[in-house]
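user:
I keep going back and forth on a fold encoding question. Separate attempts, laid side by side, tell us more than any discussion would. Would you put together a sequence-and-structure record for a protein of your own picking? Write it directly below this note and I will take it from there.

assistant:
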Amino acid sequence: MDTNFSANNRVAVLAGMAERELDLLVIGGGITGAGIALDACQRGIRVGLVEKSDFGFGTSSRSTKLIHGGLRYLKQGDVKLVREVGRERAILYKNAPHLVIAAPMLLPVYKGGTYGYLAASVGLYIYDWLAGVERKERRKMLSREETLRLEPLLKKEGLKGAGYYYEYRTDDARLTLDIMKTAWSKGASVVNYAQMIEFLYRDEKAVGVKVTDRLSGKTYDIYAKKIVNATGPWVDGVRELDKSLKGKRLYLTKGVHLVVEKEKLPVAQATYFDTPDGRMVFVIPRGSITYIGTTDTSYKLDIDQPRTTKEDRDYLLRAVIAMFPDAQLEAKDVVSHWAGLRPLIYEEGKGPSELSRKDEIFLSESGLISIAGGKLTGYRKMAEKVVDLVAADLSKEQGRRFDACRTEQTVISGGERMGHDSYADCRQQLLRMGAAKGVDSETAKEWIDTYGTNTVKIYNRLGAVREKGQKLGEEQLLQAQLSYAIEEEMTVTAVDFLRLRTSWTYFQVKKAKDRADAVIRLMGARLGWSDAQRERERLAVDQLLETLCRLPENEQELAGAKEL
């Protein structure tokens, strides 16, 4: 087997995990599982990871796409959580500069709103202090006039001013994938579309799992000294398979986001504002679009396919129209959307927005370790807690010594600086390299924002440009990008490329539609798809794009459709 993180290596990875007992097997390929795999392999723990769909398929690709300190958690009095995620945010900004982008945020203060001007000022000051924010990024309090100069579209009636503070934007699916790629490069065995179907026991202890390759149908028995369940919303389902679903359980809540063209909501500034029912909503400009989120409602339907409903859409549109009345947004302006599930820990008597975002570890009598709760920003500390526990158990049982956690210093794949002091200088070099290769500036910028320094690996897949200044064609560029996605990012379906590798179905829907046929054709040629497989891929892409256009009225309609 070659060392590339390739779709063509999947079978060899599964066979390798089945041949020899692992120290640790992680079930779940979201950001928590990826973080555990990365931490474990750097400590000398032989680790494998299986994911039943694609990496980041669930919650880890459906968040608000912010690495943020959680201002609302300060309001709940969760000082420890704010301090921890603030520190983690700074670590991620340092280690993944290609994916963690500074995004100043406006917190408008209105007469009669959730936050008074003084409360906002003090709250943001404490927030910055707890999170260890650098001096140049510390909060500023703005007057009414300064606020409107910064964001003229805001509702003027009752506006007193605003807080101006820093958050960080990310691509959650890419972050998950790049952490997974980093773990792979350091020795972790990682594979997607490998579904754990049952546990294997010896003397009532879980010693392995039976895994089915969902692409070939072949089943493998994989044994490990320790097994971790890091499956997010599916955690309780895995605990049920282990017959250990006792005591604390998950409480799933749904968060919906809408995408509109920037011309329909041309905000100049990311804004975080409160709604009449006490929730907080983000409006975030991103390239040629603006996205809006989020809701927080109890969820009890299909975990694999949470859907945005018209009810969700209309709730968010009402909130945005109330705050940005001149924008006059309508339902037809929504070009894309996504719905994700938060795997929170159930607490008696608390509603969805009141539940803590703290993580928690569950230990079963079989030895299964499950982790749930938490936030995207806190994934590294969650992983550290789990691996500390695994390392302690292995040390006690086998007398082996393991290194301490080193992930605080680990640069994530794509975030290397190529000898430069700053990533900004590195980015400029990558742009120059693209121009020399004949890549147009728009494509080069998109690749750099998506892949970071791994863009060089896509450049290297481009054919030589015959004449100086000649630009490469769209097909050549797409072919190089797909080659990289398949050979270095274990991409096996067209839907995964369009949604998880590029985010085109979220933020560039027209591009996703225009290039879907070429993606299927080129991937089919590289992966040897039959006509029937190409047809299945076409159908899957059509279904994904269709969900962007047709929304069910509400979850009652979805529940009724499922019963039929």
